[in-house]
Amino acid sequence: MKTICFKNYQELSAYTAAEIADAIKEKPSLLLCMASGHTPALTAELLVKKLLEEEIDYSQITFLGLDEWVGLPRENEGSCYHFFTTKLFEPLQLKPSQYFLFDAMSGDLKAECTKMDAVIDSNGGIDLMLVGIGMNGHIGFNEPGTSFTALSHVIELDETTKSVGQKYFKEKTALHQGITIGLGHLINAKKVFLKADGKRKADVIKKR
Ligand code: F6R
Question: What's the CATH number for 9-207?
Fold first, then answer.
């Protein structure tokens, strides 16, 4: 594991956007998995800019959304679906066959997990993961204590996740469960960037 400290959010984001772009150049059929949220927002913007300006061929990549709030409609601006659609899929005009996101409104969440695991398995594991870290140390919605072998699963959200998560929503939103790609897939991923931005994440990073 390598730790890199950047001067600011801009530099952290530019570095990871460049790393993703290089990974796509190296492996055009990259299986890329990303978190949503505040930390990767600028990375997504810079990645789109780089791919378009440098005319990098991303027509063969497959994208996976790391997680979603269970029971939240996709059109809600705080959903991970909304984040990925507005920040990546629309600007890059990705084909729907190129991305897989959990349908957190599905009546069969177990089937959603099975589908996600099958995509990951059929591609031989995730090539590149870009994840953030929550104030309680969660990665995706793998709350503290989640097994390191967990595959995709539904989880009861921690109180910290429910309260910190309000920052994504215009109105107070009831959050109960999350659906997430598990740590087992992260451990097996070929490369993982875990990013933390700002002093408020310092303590949790020290503990990890
Ligand atoms: C979101 C996700 C979460 C966030 C984490 C940090 O898809 O997987 O684990 O990465 O809660 O969120 P931000 O980046 O908003 O501080």
Answer: 3.40.50.1360
